Amino acid sequence: MTRMWILGGAAAVCLGAVAPAARAQQVDASATATYGEIELSSGFANDPYRVTVTSGGTIDAASISSGCTGMVASAPDFEVTYEADSLPLTFGVDASVDTTLVINGPDGDWTCDDDSGGGTDPEVTYARPRSGTYDVWVGAFGGDSGSAELFVTELGRDGAGSAASGDGHPDASATAAYGEIRLSTGFKNDPYRVDVLAGGSLNASAVDDACAGTIATAPDFQLTFEAGSLPLTIRATSDGDVTLVVNGPDGEWHCDDDSGGGSDAELTFQRPASGVYDVWVGAYDGDSVAAELSITELR
Fold it and tell me: Is residue 198 domain-shared with residue 131, that is, in the same domain?
């Protein structure tokens, strides 16, 4: 069932009058957004703007209002500072898991949605958006967190194109969701390791028919590497079934499913080039799963 609620300042005051102070402080719009922030002006380039997040948290969104649903974090997942004009502004989520949206707008009003984006995806459109700050939470409906893509657009969902269909293409120019590192051959503390959440809403086969699993639009990790004579290996391990998609310094795509043994993925560059390696860790079965990404020159 589709549900969207917009709560005015008067309603917020009323809730504050009857709810315990601790409850009102559970969700903190003043906290630093976990997955970053962006300033956008009406007519912004590269519309839609997309960012990969992990949905869910430990707070029941119903504590904001009975019209809100799903589990959310205390801090916003993302923050948009927007300069409005005459166009509507849409926030939406594409994910293989059931997600919700909670937004605190420039006027302090709360807006919540469950399934207005179609299927289990939420969507909120401000027909006459205000200029100012929009703090956004992506909730997990059943409490099960997972990888999700939050998008911001003035084109509407149809114009933006839904990545949930799996027809989108990964964007190597996007900011890596789990960070980046610069390494030179012979680097210390080899292997370098980072925890990620595998999976996303895109089919890896959009890159090449030989690629498997589902991945996010933005890379999971970015490696800037100064090569020497040693091979470079990128590996993904997990209790689940994971895959690898890597865009190398020459712009070529490399994919693997089970070369790491069992259901783990591994790619080895025998003569690695210096430059940027954008890395996606895919989920073979489509369900997001915790994974460890490692980078090594050791065999």
Answer: no
